[in-house]
């Protein structure tokens, strides 16, 4: 995959009962180069998840086009998706949960290695319901990377975790992304998280969603989430655009 | 656990004591004491044809069970997934759910003759609607979010069905299998009584004509014991295996 080109003219939901349409996305254009960690920040209900579902093909009805470069389309591109909840299969063990999404070729080499990287070596044979919320996310993260995706989509994957656990997972994400580079689209409403993680932050407007602001984060890696730099960048952004998190400028 | 077993055993013994006392007090031919029944059971087992008839009946039970579960599960999944199919077949299902077992058996024998096929069809038709109702509820309750995971990672159809879909139905499958097997064997006996020349039902009919209550009870016990064994050593372990991940 070279780069992702997202050109959405319009995405509408039609409610048949009251015969009304709701415009979720309008005139949305975004280009994401290969290997970039791109965060998308927007107010809740602005259409972020809708956008992700369009990109990964869970939702196929749109006016517009999303392409992944030459000779690449939804059918032959390797996409991974980490959802808001871990979405593990409760009847499979940790290692089986990772292997279940892999082709036969990749099973041996990848899954256990990545799970060890996530600090889960001792828990390979545990069932998900025996693990804490944070550990379940680690399994989900391992599953996402084990499939060697060309594009990894993450939809607020660390919400509903307490801060220290979420921070640990963010560090793990950066670590594994450094070892196994891929293009990441990371949706969040936490601007600090976005600054810590990404190369670039795209701010979305209120619904219907379009690009409000496109920011490069040039802070050198490795970064430290407790570091003042992150705080400073965040204050800078908010000072210049105080209402940007509400989806207005 | 041990305590539970003791209580169960105790209550079972009580039942036999009540039976023995009743039989003694009334002292009528139509209620033989437990001892006599067990003696008959032993004789039938060693010298009679009990094992032969038991095997035949068990064979019919299993065949009908498999046919009924197979068709019922497929219909249940289809109807749970598609409103259209559900609308088409729901009224059929309600009709079959409410036709008395006896009517289905008689019609089956009339249409297909007094054959093995007719027997199996009659029993299966009685059970299928129940399976459909249970499995349909399960199919409706399936978590689409887990299926999306399979879709994203382009998991193959067969793997998706067996690892992402079917496990979500296990509790419903086990429930309908459990209820199914006990319903089926009761119907099988009626089917045998009405139109077969072997099997427990046929023998019961014969004993009934001679008013041989001891033999009727002996055959009943033999079969109940076998069915309890099946539940304990086949269905329960299956259930436990399917629910292993729920344990704490």
Spell out the key features of this protein.
heterodimer; A: 249 residues; alpha/beta; Rossmann fold; three-stranded antiparallel sheet; 25% strand; B: 248 residues; mainly alpha; globular
Element layout with pairings:
The complex is a heterodimer of chains A (about 250) and B (about 250).
Chain A: E1 3-15, E2 20-33, E3 37-41, H1 48-56, E4 63-67, E5 79-82, H2 94-99, H3 104-117, H4 133-146, E6 151-155, H5 163-179, E7 183-188, H6 191-197, E8 200-204, E9 211-216, H7 228-240
Parallel strand pairs in A: 3-7, 3-8, 5-6, 6-7
Antiparallel strand pairs in A: 1-2, 1-4, 8-9
Helix pairs in contact in A: 3-4, 4-5, 6-7
Chain B: H1 2-26, H2 34-46, H3 50-81, H4 83-98, H5 101-112, H6 116-140, H7 144-152, H8 157-195, H9 200-209, H10 213-242
Helix pairs in contact in B: 2-10, 3-4, 3-6, 3-8, 4-6, 5-6, 5-8, 6-8, 8-9, 8-10, 9-10
How does this model look, in words?
The complex is a heterodimer of chains A (249) and B (248). Chain A has 249 residues and is an alpha/beta fold. Chain A has helices spanning 48-56, 94-99, 104-117, 133-146, 163-179, 191-197, 228-240, and strands at residues 3-15, 20-33, 37-41, 63-67, 79-82, 151-155, 183-188, 200-204, 211-216. Chain A has a six-stranded mixed sheet with strand order 5-6-7-3-8-9, sandwiched between helices. A three-stranded antiparallel sheet of chain A has the order 2-1-4, with helices on one face. With 248 residues, chain B is mainly alpha-helical. Helix content of chain B is 85%, strand content 0%. In chain B, helix 3 (50-81) packs parallel to helix 6, helix 3 (50-81) crosses helix 8 and helix 5 (101-112) packs across helix 8. The longest helix of chain B is centred in the C-terminal third of the chain and has 39 residues, at 157-195. Chain B is globular and about 70 Å long. The relative contact order of chain B is 0.12. The chains are: A alpha/beta (249), B mainly alpha (248). Chains A and B meet through strand 5 of A and helix 7 and helix 8 of B.
């Amino acid at each position: 995959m070279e780069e992702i080109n997202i050109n959405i003219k319009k995405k509408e939901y039609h409610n048949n009962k009251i015969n009304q349409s709701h415009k979720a996305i309008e005139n949305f254009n975004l280009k994401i180069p290969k290997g970039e960690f791109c965060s998308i920040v927007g107010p809740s209900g602005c259409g972020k998840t809708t956008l992700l579902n369009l990109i990964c093909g869970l939702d196929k009805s749109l006016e517009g086009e999303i392409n992944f470069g030459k000779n690449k389309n939804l059918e032959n591109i390797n996409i991974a998706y980490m959802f808001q909840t871990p979405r593990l299969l409760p009847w499979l063990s940790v290692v089986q949960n990772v292997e279940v999404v892999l082709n036969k070729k990749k099973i041996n080499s990848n899954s256990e290695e990545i799970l060890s990287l996530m600090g889960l070596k001792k828990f390979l044979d545990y069932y998900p319901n025996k693990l804490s919320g944070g550990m379940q996310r680690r399994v989900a993260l391992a599953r996402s990377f084990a499939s060697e995706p060309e594009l990894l989509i993450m939809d607020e994957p660390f919400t509903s975790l307490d801060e220290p656990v979420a921070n640990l997972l963010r560090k793990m994400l950066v670590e594994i992304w450094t070892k196994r580079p891929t293009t990441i689209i990371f949706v969040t409403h936490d601007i600090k998280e976005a600054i810590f993680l990404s190369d670039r932050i795209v701010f979305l407007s209120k619904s219907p969603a379009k690009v409000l602001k496109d920011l490069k984060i040039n802070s050198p890696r490795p970064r430290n989430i407790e570091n003042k730099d992150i705080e400073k960048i965040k204050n800078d952004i908010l000072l210049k655009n105080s209402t940007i998190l509400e989806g207005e400028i | 656990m041990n305590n539970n077993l003791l209580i169960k055993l105790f209550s079972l013994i009580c039942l036999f004591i009540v039976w023995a006392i009743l039989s003694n007090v009334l002292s009528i031919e139509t209620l033989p004491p437990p001892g006599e029944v067990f003696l008959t059971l032993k004789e039938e087992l060693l010298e009679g044809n009990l094992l032969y008839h038991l095997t035949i009946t068990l064979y019919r039970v299993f065949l009908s069970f498999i046919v009924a579960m197979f068709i019922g599960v497929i219909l249940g999944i289809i109807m749970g997934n598609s409103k259209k199919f559900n609308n088409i077949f729901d009224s059929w299902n309600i009709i079959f759910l409410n036709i008395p077992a006896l009517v289905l058996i008689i019609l089956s024998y009339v249409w297909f003759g007094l054959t093995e096929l007719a027997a199996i069809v009659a029993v299966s038709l009685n059970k299928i609607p129940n399976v459909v109702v249970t499995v349909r509820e399960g199919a409706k309750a399936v978590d689409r979010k887990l299926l999306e995971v399979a879709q994203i990672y382009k998991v193959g159809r067969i793997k998706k069905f067996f690892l992402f879909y079917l496990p979500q139905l296990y509790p419903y499958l086990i429930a309908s299998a459990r209820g199914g097997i006990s319903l089926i064997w009761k119907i099988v006996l009626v089917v045998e009584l009405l139109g077969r020349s072997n099997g427990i039902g046929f023998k019961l009919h014969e004993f009934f004509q001679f008013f041989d209550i001891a033999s009727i009870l002996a055959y009943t016990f033999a079969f109940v014991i076998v069915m309890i064994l099946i539940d304990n050593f086949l269905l329960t372990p299956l259930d436990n295996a399917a629910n292993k991940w729920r344990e704490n």
